[in-house]
Specification:
Elements lengths: L4 H24 L5 H6 L6 H28 L4 H29 L4 H9 L2 H34 L10 H47 L5 H12 L12 H13 L5 H4 L11 H31 L12 H8 L3 H39 L6 H25 L3 H7 L3 H14 L8 H21 L9 H19 L7 H8 L1
Length: 498
Amino acid sequence: MEAYRAEITLAFVTVYMLMCVVVGVWAMRRTHSAGDFFVAGRGLGPMVIAFAIFSSTLSGFGFVGGPGLVYSSGMSSVWMICVSTFGYALGFFLVAKRIRMIAEVREAVSLPDIVSARYDSRTVTVLTALTIVLGVMGYLATQILAMAVVLQSVLSALPMFEGIGLVTCIAISASVLVFYCVTGGIIASVYTDLFQGAIMAVSGVLILVAAAQVFDGGIQEASEIIFADEPEAIMPFGTLGFMTCLGWFFVFGLGLAGQPHLITKMMMNRKISDNRTILPLSLVAYALAALLWLSIGVVMKAVVIDGQIDPLAASDLAAPSFLSLFAHPLLAGLVFAALFAAIMSTSDAFLNIGVAAIVHDIPKALRGRSLGNELNAARIWTVLLALIATGFAIFSFYVNDRLVALLGAFGWSTFAAVIVPVVAIGLNWKRAHPVAATAAILVSLAINFGFEFAAISLPYGIVSGYIAVLGSLITFLAVSLSLKPRRLAADIDAVMDL
């Protein structure tokens, strides 16, 4: 079976790609309105929502970037995993119930709709929508590029595709993504998330078992090898130190409650009471899948130190190298398929919220109504947004990688800095003022853009996202407390009293 490793991997990936096409066609038959396209008609069960939320959290970053971070910086990145569990609880406690109720009473289909209902401010709504669009562009470009790079590595292992180019792989990846997203919208994404999430959770456990068999003494022996060579790497704060881990606590702990592609899915469940089931299911599945992050990173760092293999050319090669060297071909094929699933469903989620901002939120805020025939407009803009992101991905790879890096500044930390105060706090604090929300958004964007343009590196390992989140929160609270409270609409006031 080892001799057919490349063919087995390609078979798994091909089956997954075909499944995406089938799911897209099936979902298209269930998509009859913009509400279906953007929030699945608010009629999904707890299992589907739970897996959709958890799998969107890990995505391709958890499968590739996570092990790479452990390989390069030891236990530092484990704080991202640990504090995310706190983020889940915070998100469900502060956001899930009220966002679902407002979606019901105001017929909201997007996060800016919720912001508009809460603040009754055109400026806050437009700024929130613009932030989402800019952040989505950075995420989409990197996701499409990542999917193409992985596809190229899978195909080039076969003699018939040995010379396949990256642009060809980008075209293949983008084509499947566009078909999948245009036909099914968010319905296709969340049901694929159910399949993908199950694979991720199972893969996490199986990878842990495979990793434990690399050394006779299992993960403990691998940890001892790392400790003997670089003690800091295996200590609680890793090689990056306390301040970096503290920053990640804020960015990933508080920030999970501020990710639009996650909290939008909290608007889609059939019943609010389902949150009692959704939260624990999400946490358990996330914990199982995160085993892959830790186990691959530790073992790959240990085998390099032990001299079994040469140092990796790039830390992000930790997961692919492990799958090629130490995983059974069937398990490797399964995990590669899960990687494509993670990238595909996350890309769909980002496309969905980006298109909603363009088609629904910005026009509605500026002229009082969304674009005509929202469903068709959404499908057209899905194609356009995917093509623009594909162009950015190609330009970034061949010409200037700072373009995507600049857009990537509107990533996790900026979403956290904007949405945690404006939505997570704003839905729970009646005194939150629209002027404060506007100021917080502008401060967040200024900090992220400023650090990116000036290429500022902070001392003591402090991450810029931490400064953005802290600055935004302080601004939001200070401005709200300094201004006279505004009267809320009766229905929003009633929701916040519950």
